[in-house]
Design goal:
Layout lengths: L16 E9 L4 E3 H11 L9 H6 L5 E3 L30 H27 L8 E6 L8 H9 L6 E6 L5 H15 L5 E8 L10 H9 L2 E10 L1 H5 L5 H9 L2 E10 L7 E6 L2 E6 L3 H19 L9 E4 L4 H11 L3 H14 L6 H12 L5 E8 L3 E9 L4
Parallel strand pairs: 4-5, 4-6, 11-12
Antiparallel strand pairs: 1-7, 1-8, 2-3, 6-7, 8-13, 9-10, 12-13
Amino acid sequence: MSLNIAPNVLPKQSTKACILGIGTESPEHSISQNEAALVAQELGLSVRWRDALPALYRKSGVQRRGSVLLGPEELPLSQRQSFYRPSCDTELFGPTTSERMKVFAEHAGPMLQRACVQAIKSSGIAESSITHLVTVSCTGFFAPGVDIALIQSLGLDSNIQRTHVGFMGCHGALNAIRTAKAIVEADPTAIVLVGAIELCSLHQQYTDDAQQLVANALFADGAASVVIGARREDVETVNQDLAYLDTVDQANWTIASTFSKWIPNTTNLMSWTVGNYGFRMSLDPQVPAVIERNLEIELKTWLNNQGLEISDIGAWAIHPGGPRIIQATGNALGLAQEFLQPSQAILENFGNMSSPTVLFILEKLAMEKPDASSCVLLAFGPGLCIEAVLLRSKSEF
């Protein structure tokens, strides 16, 4: 049996999604890790481990991190924030979750807007051309949410199609990129704005639980955004405006593939739960060892399917869950120190900002390694789950 195919009809080539612009934003004020440890002691965050807090904070790999709760650096340390108060009989565990969510609703939209403005500016795309909005957060809830706040503050079309990636943890931005990739590949005229906002400092825990004290020492606030659209040749077929085509021609990274893996029998190793006094993080000390045992075979198989070896990857944006997780990733994949340094630098200067953090690293890599032919974004989250995105230079296609 033969198929009759019209002579002038050619098979449609698959659309490729590109990163057109990126922007990041930190809180106006930050605090050194040494000062943060002193604050933790004075608040009485832990009774049992009070004297050990300075050493714990030093070992976190963080030197400075930002928070929307902080005032100017020139103020005395005791006056730099008023949200958290010393533990007492009437307030043992700090502000309630309701109080913390009020602060999230106040600060999340404006901070994410500033990151999105940078991404849109670097993309060269007009706000009116954006067709889809994908937002990410695991540190706060309110409705109408940050998506509506962005539509208002950025002047986006009120018909924009919205998706929210919620409560997925540190790899949430990678899931958002996967969503944007699917949208663009289904419709080459789509332009997707992705925005991730986390205010982790709202979830400081008053506790003697060692895992939660580690989280207190690591986490910080941040926002990041990327603009994603189709590559030039895909847009040309649907007669998109020339200004957009010029922007696409300058885009360096194509989103080649994404990867997701839940590691069975690990659900108790990492969690993020809503409590009466903020959200509580648990991070089992076994996590680095589990990463070392499982990561290589999973990424090797995925990359082999893309015609690549682990050694072919020119840049790595590894989410810095902590110094041991960065090192475990390097050990598992046989990566030289130079590939781990960008993640370590972001952790050192900004802390673990949860979902936006890999985009901070990507922005750093875009400036420091603009000629890299490939880059892998990699993060781990509750589950325990591995999420990854493969970016390839446009010259590879």
